[in-house]
Design brief:
single chain; mainly alpha; three-stranded antiparallel β-sheet; 230 residues; 6 helices
């Protein structure tokens, strides 16, 4: 009996008599596409698990969205580096001003320290994010702060905006602490409590996002990613 399909492979028929079920396509021989990607590019699939809501899978081959624990560790490392280096310089300056100018010189030193801490913090993070794609603390843990849409290095205006939302409140709180005596001291306590609550909010907002974009990241349209070892 001749083959009614003329030697062609017959598509399997749905047992219920409906339309043919397409046969699975064969690989074309191209490179395998990473899970969750549609042929390359910066995507935002969701998979895998983590605390909070499930953590999205990486946006590109060899790149994963960074979860909160390594990001917090990087934050602590950066705080120690910045705090130690700035604290050493400020202590020497304050001592010198006190010796040469008494309490008046020390007061000037407090003002310089307050403003200097804000400038030092901004310069530290804005420079490293835009030049190295990561702060020193992040580099130790193979993390990068990049544009959320395509993974590009962030521009200076984006870095400034991210710093204002992430580190600005903490720097202001620390500045109040440097100058904190009397009424300023009471205000410093209030500011510290408010800043602490703000950082709890940032952690919560990041934990509820699949890409771990906290409130500060959304304002700057950035994400923190971790690159796997080559």
């Amino acid at each position: 009996m001749s083959d009614p399909y003329g030697g062609q492979d017959q598509a399997p028929i749905d047992p219920a008599g409906r339309a043919p079920i397409p046969a699975p396509s064969e690989p074309t021989g191209g490179a395998a596409t990473p899970s969750g990607q549609a042929g390359g590019g910066w995507q935002t699939p969701t998979d895998t698990s983590s605390f909070g809501v499930p953590l999205a899978t990486g946006p590109a081959a060899g790149v994963a969205y960074a979860d909160l624990v390594p990001r917090i560790i990087a934050y602590v490392i950066d705080a120690l580096i910045l705090g130690f280096s700035f604290g050493l310089v400020w202590t020497v300056l304050l001592t010198t001003l006190f010796i040469t100018g008494g309490f008046g010189g020390a007061f000037i030193g407090l003002i310089i320290g307050t403003v200097g801490l804000l400038i030092a913090s901004a310069a530290y993070f804005i420079f490293t994010w835009t030049r190295w794609r990561a702060s020193p603390g992040q580099r130790i843990l193979s993390l990068e702060t990049v544009n959320a849409d395509d993974g590009a290095t962030i521009r200076q205006d984006v870095a400034i905006r991210r710093w204002l939302y992430l580190y600005g409140p903490g720097a202001i709180s620390s500045a109040f602490g440097l100058a904190g005596t009397g009424v300023i001291g009471i205000l410093s306590t209030v500011v510290s409590v408010a800043v602490f609550a703000y950082y709890i909010f940032l952690l919560y907002s990041a934990s509820q996002d699949p890409r771990r974009q906290g409130f500060h990241d959304k304002q700057a349209n950035t994400v923190v990613v971790k690159r796997s070892a080559a």
